[in-house]
Automatic annotation (TrEMBL):
<keyword id="KW-0963">Cytoplasm</keyword>
<dbReference type="Pfam" id="PF00152">
    <property type="entry name" value="tRNA-synt_2"/>
</dbReference>
<keyword id="KW-0436">Ligase</keyword>
<dbReference type="InterPro" id="IPR004365">
    <property type="entry name" value="NA-bd_OB_tRNA"/>
</dbReference>
<dbReference type="GO" id="GO:0004824">
    <property type="term" value="F:lysine-tRNA ligase activity"/>
</dbReference>
<dbReference type="GO" id="GO:0006430">
    <property type="term" value="P:lysyl-tRNA aminoacylation"/>
</dbReference>
<dbReference type="GO" id="GO:0000287">
    <property type="term" value="F:magnesium ion binding"/>
</dbReference>
<keyword id="KW-0067">ATP-binding</keyword>
<feature type="domain" description="Aminoacyl-transfer RNA synthetases class-II family profile">
    <location>
        <begin position="190"/>
        <end position="502"/>
    </location>
</feature>
<dbReference type="InterPro" id="IPR044136">
    <property type="entry name" value="Lys-tRNA-ligase_II_N"/>
</dbReference>
<keyword id="KW-0460">Magnesium</keyword>
<dbReference type="GO" id="GO:0005524">
    <property type="term" value="F:ATP binding"/>
</dbReference>
<comment type="subunit">
    <text>Homodimer.</text>
</comment>
<dbReference type="InterPro" id="IPR002313">
    <property type="entry name" value="Lys-tRNA-ligase_II"/>
</dbReference>
<dbReference type="InterPro" id="IPR045864">
    <property type="entry name" value="aa-tRNA-synth_II/BPL/LPL"/>
</dbReference>
<dbReference type="Pfam" id="PF01336">
    <property type="entry name" value="tRNA_anti-codon"/>
</dbReference>
<keyword id="KW-0648">Protein biosynthesis</keyword>
């Protein structure tokens, strides 16, 4: 890396790195460093009445340092927390050579470096459980400084709180911001508890293709890629549904998959183009059974994560204690808008949309999409406590079994929590003739311009023709579930690496453009370091200022270039 691309701190750290190596210290040793304790456990297990101090070996990042002559205190951060280390020169340097303390520890080590400490546990006069170091080992040198928060007169400086930086540099966010790691540990508990409940119920975890020839199982816009060997377009899956149902046809009692789905749609605080979903399918069940199973499952997960059936998000206490309210979707719309959409035609519903002054309606939308838009605008956001919205019109549910007693409706529910959909479930359609007709209706919508309409999957229809038993299925959005369980209002807070726009790169002219002005190539990085990234940036600059800027950089960074004269600099500018 060009030295001009580094900050002053980075240059100092690299010089320290080289100095360590010159002293015979490997800043990145390969050997295993054996630890036998973690910071939190040391504190929890400390006993003042022990006859022999506990000997420990720990490792982690040095997060703070207070040097007081021959003795110092540091704060060490390991994977579980932080602990204070007491270091004295003569303890870690028992021989005559004191370089490890005087040079390495005091000058060459920096905050953020990894070190190993062997010593014993004790309590300081201030009552803080600490480790008295007897041996110090350099484990890894950090070359970039951490944005460690500093306080002065009650004001915090150098906070790492810009969401753009936090999400893009999650590794730094995890190091310096309290609570971030805990969120992802809770996410792991959510998935672990979910998996345990499904395994205990006797269902089989499976894996299905991510690259699919037909993007089926949901109404969504897919990502498209190309397979060179087969010379064919493929799609990143938008759902796992159709493949999991094939396995029910094949004889599994129940199957589930926890994995990534991909939808080529907008990004906001509730949506990421790739997201984690759990889909479950169980034979001989219906959507009523699935509602009962789901509310018990979510109650169990909430207790595992939070120790109770309550979770707090956006200042609201949400109770996941079963049972949950059940409300048919058309009743919900009537309740919130005053309009009864039962038995209404597409044109009549379109007129309702006009009366409700809905602006996002267009001619490509069929009856199902119109109802979905009305529910989304006037109803969805009002359901804070877990609520099952049930009995969707057939036009909204191309993969769902017709309702056993309500013509024109299907046996489907969506679970709404905190104003957003968390789960979607059906009594699965297993009539292959009916399914084919539903697919054809979807293709008519596609012909009208609906790019989220489903494509006919002939192989899935063939599987249904071999016979699928009565089945209920559900999909639960894991990311949204974690948001609810951890009280996070943004999906980016529960994804390690959410999708981000490309980083902005400062435009720079090539060296050749600068050389056209008579500038030597080796001077171009210095000119751009001074802030003149484009040739045009130098157009109206005072030659003496430009001369002063670049000569200062030459001296500061020890580039050892021959400085140009002011007249030469003026000559460059005159040619622009």
């Amino acid at each position: 890396m060009n030295v001009l691309e580094l900050s002053e701190q980075e240059i100092i750290r690299r010089n320290s790195l080289n100095e360590m190596r010159a002293m015979g210290i490997d800043p990145y040793p390969a050997a295993e460093y054996v630890t036998n304790a973690f910071s939190t456990d040391i504190k929890a297990e400390f006993k003042e009445d022990e006859t022999e101090p506990r000997k420990v070996s720990v490792a982690g990042r040095m997060m703070s340092r207070r040097v007081m002559g021959k003795a110092s205190f540091i704060e060490l951060q390991d994977s579980k927390g932080r602990i204070q280390i007491y270091i004295t020169r003569d303890d870690i340097c028992p021989d005559e050579n004191k370089d490890l303390y005087n040079i390495v520890f005091k000058r060459l080590l920096d905050l953020g470096d990894f070190i190993g400490i062997e010593g014993y546990v004790f309590k300081t006069q201030m009552g803080e459980i600490s480790i008295h170091a007897k041996k110090l080992t350099v484990l890894s040198k950090s070359l970039k400084p951490l944005p460690i928060v500093k306080y002065k007169d009650g004001v915090a400086y150098d906070k790492f709180e810009d969401p753009e930086l936090r999400y893009r540099q999650r590794y730094v966010d995890l190091i310096v911001n309290e609570g971030v790691k805990e969120t992802f540990e809770k996410r792991a508990i959510v998935v672990k508890t979910l998996r345990a409940a499904l395994d205990e119920a006797g269902y089989t975890e499976v894996e299905t293709p991510i690259l699919q020839s037909i993007p089926g199982g949901a109404s969504a816009r897919p990502f498209i890629t190309h397979h060179n060997s087969l010379d064919m377009d493929l799609y990143l899956r938008i759902a796992t549904e159709l493949y999991l149902k094939r396995l029910i046809v094949g004889g599994f009692e129940g199957v589930y998959e926890i994995g990534k789905n991909f939808r080529n749609e907008g990004m906001d605080k509730n949506h990421n183009p790739e997201f984690t979903c759990m889909e479950l399918y169980v034979q001989y069940k219906d959507y009523n059974w699935m509602m009962s199973f789901t509310e018990k499952l979510l109650e169990r997960i909430c207790i595992a994560v939070n120790g109770s059936t309550d979770s707090i998000i956006d200042g609201k206490t949400i109770s996941f204690k079963a049972p949950y309210r059940r409300l048919p979707i058309l009743e919900a719309i009537k309740e919130k808008t005053g309009y009864d959409l039962n038995d209404k035609t597409e044109e009549e519903i379109r007129q309702v949309c006009k009366e409700l002054k809905m602006e996002e309606i267009d001619e490509t939308m069929g009856k199902g999409k119109l109802i979905d838009e009305i529910f989304g605008e006037f109803c969805e956001g009002t359901y804070i406590q877990p609520t099952f919205i049930t009995d969707y019109p057939v036009e909204m549910s191309p993969l769902t079994k017709m309702h056993r007693s309500k013509p024109g409706l299907t046996e489907r529910f969506e679970l709404m929590v905190n104003g957003k959909e968390l789960a979607n479930a059906y009594s699965e359609l297993n009539d292959p003739i009916d399914q084919e007709e539903r697919f054809k209706e979807q293709m008519k919508l596609a012909d009208k311009g609906d790019d989220e309409a489903m494509i006919i999957d002939q192989d899935f229809l063939r599987a249904l023709q071999y016979g699928m038993p009565p089945t209920s299925g559900i999909g639960i959005g894991i990311d949204r579930l974690v948001m609810l369980m951890t009280g996070k209002p943004y999906i980016q807070e529960v994804l390690f690496f959410p999708q981000m726009r490309p980083e902005k790169i400062t435009p720079k002219d090539s060296a050749a453009k600068f050389m056209e002005l008579g500038i030597a190539e080796e001077w171009v990085p210095a000119i751009q370091k001074a802030g003149y990234n484009l040739v045009s940036d130098m157009k109206d600059v005072n030659p003496q200022k430009l001369h002063q800027d670049i000569c200062g950089i030459n001296k500061k960074y020890k580039l050892e270039l021959t400085n140009p004269t002011v007249d030469e600099v003026a000559g460059w500018i005159s040619k622009i």
